[in-house]
């Protein structure tokens, strides 16, 4: 798996494609075996864990980067007084608090 392939996976994930859609776009047997294992079960067993982890991290990174861009836009609009953006920002804050609370509970076990 090359750095260029990982970057392309990340960029496609930023566009909110699913893992399976990214596999189709990339048109690569190894990537398909990782992201759409139902399509290529025999090759999925041959791929090392580190490569699988890198591919899944590239997908997640792309999704999160895109979400971060949207959140920045919402925050900017909220600070400019856009009422709907205030509500969205408050919802994001509440969601983060719940998720962090859940994470804290898991860590303490």
- How would you spell out the order of helices and strands? HHHHHH
Unreliable stretches covering 5 or more consecutive residues:
none
Separation of the first and last Cα atoms: 37 Å
Please report the number of helical segments. Answer: 6
Largest sheet: none
Helix content: over 70%
- Secondary structure: number of strands: 0
**Gyration radius from CA atoms, angstroms:** 18 Å
Average pLDDT over all residues:
91
Category by helix and strand content: mainly alpha
Question: What's the overall geometry?
Answer: flat
Tally of discrete structural domains: 1
Beta-strand content = under 5%
What report would you give on this structure?
This protein is an all-alpha fold and 109 residues long. The protein has one domain. The protein contains six helices and no strands. The protein has helices spanning 3-14, 19-26, 29-35, 41-44, 49-79, 83-108.
Summarize the structure.
The protein has six helices and no strands. It has helices at residues 3-14, 19-26, 29-35, 41-44, 49-79, 83-108. Helix 1 packs parallel to helix 5 (49-79), helix 2 (19-26) packs antiparallel against helix 3 and helix 5 runs antiparallel to helix 6.
Task: Note the main attributes of this structure.
flat, 109 residues, mainly alpha
Layout of helices and strands:
Layout lengths: L2 H12 L4 H8 L2 H7 L5 H4 L4 H31 L3 H26 L1
